[in-house]
Amino acid sequence: MAKKICQQCNEEYTGKVSSMFCSRNCYADFRRGTKRSSEAVFKMRKSLTGRKLSEEHKNNISKGLVGRFVSEETREKISKSKKGRKMPKNVKKKLLEANWKGDDVTRNTGHQRAQRLIEANVCERCGREKEETMLHRHHIDENALNNSEENIEILCARCHVREHRKRRKETCHL
Q: Which residue of 45, 88, 124, 174 has the smallest Cβ count within 10 Å?
């Protein structure tokens, strides 16, 4: 890796020969057309430390963290900070519904929920283990929102691709 100068903030960094920016933030600023000096970046960082976040901003951060692993110590800190707050009615209603698992379900979150809920150690077709290859959770009925154990089949990447090719050929009428 070579020492280079970032095209956005003009700071020296160590990076790949093909890279032009020291960070994703500098790349994003470059794409937006904003040019910031290193002094300006430093002042911005300094002004943002210790700042109070709005409720909307906190909610957006929380939504982005849904499904991530949180240690027991962090959970205790979060619960202490939330004591005494009232729960919004829409969230309370969703918690009372039997099928709600903690997030609004879409196709992508359905796949993510399957990743969280169902452990994968071995491909059910060829027997390859988790250490050898990436294991996928295949929805048998092709409905990502249906995460019952009967509907999920653990497949290695190769078997998963074969399954989808086979289904595509079956549905294709030429």
A: 174
Q: How far apart are CA 119 and CA 53, in angstroms?
A: 36
117-134 pLDDT per residue, tens: 778 889 899 988 888 888
> Rounded to an integer, what distance in angstroms lies between the CA atom of residue 94 and that of residue 155?
32
pTM listed for this prediction: 0.40
Assigned token pair, 76: 């205790």
Q: Is 160:138 a contact under the CB 8 Å cutoff?
A: yes
Percent of residues in the chain assigned helix, strand, coil, to nearest 5: 45, 10, 45
Strands (E), 16-162: 135-139, 152-156
DSSP state of 53: P
